[in-house]
Amino acid sequence: MDVLRRHSTALGMVLIMAGSLSAVSLAKAGEQDIGSDDALRIEVTKKGLGKQVVISQGVKEWFMLIDVTPENAVVIRQEKDRERYLVDESETHDRPMTPGEVDAAIADYVNSVKTRARKQ
Q1: Which of 4, 12, 50, 90 is deepest in the core (most CB within 10 A)?
Q2: Beta bridge pairs of residue 64
């Protein structure tokens, strides 16, 4: 339960900090870089009241799904290198996320992956 509380608190803080992102930033986060294997390919898809993002670079893949229901929100994050999962985690929030919170969380995740991919 403490792990869930920490993840929920951390995501809440991220959402507050990311709340200042503009729609332009989110639109840019959905752009695809097509070319060499080193380029990030980003695909953002609406899923019901939530969204999903799949980011790939060569054999690496990052995935985030935010599933929003009237009662709660579930956030799933995965990172894969070939067929090996490096990250496979989920968290459940006791309230639904607003569309703005979903957009901010997706944009923050995309920016986080972009930053980590550049450092490698």
Answers
A1: 50
A2: 53, 77
3-state secondary structure of 108: helix
Torsion angle of C-alpha atoms 39, 23, 67, 89, degrees rounded to 10: 50
Quote the radius of gyration of the chain (alpha carbons, Å).
14
pTM to 2 decimals?
0.69
Question: How far is the C-alpha of 25 from the C-alpha of 15, rounded, in Å?
Answer: 15
| pLDDT single digits (tens) 85-101 | 999 999 999 999 999 99
CA–CA distance, 71 with 35 (Å, rounded to integer): 42
Candidates 66, 36, 26; CA nearest to 48 is 66
Is residue 60 within 8 Å of 39, Cβ to Cβ?
no
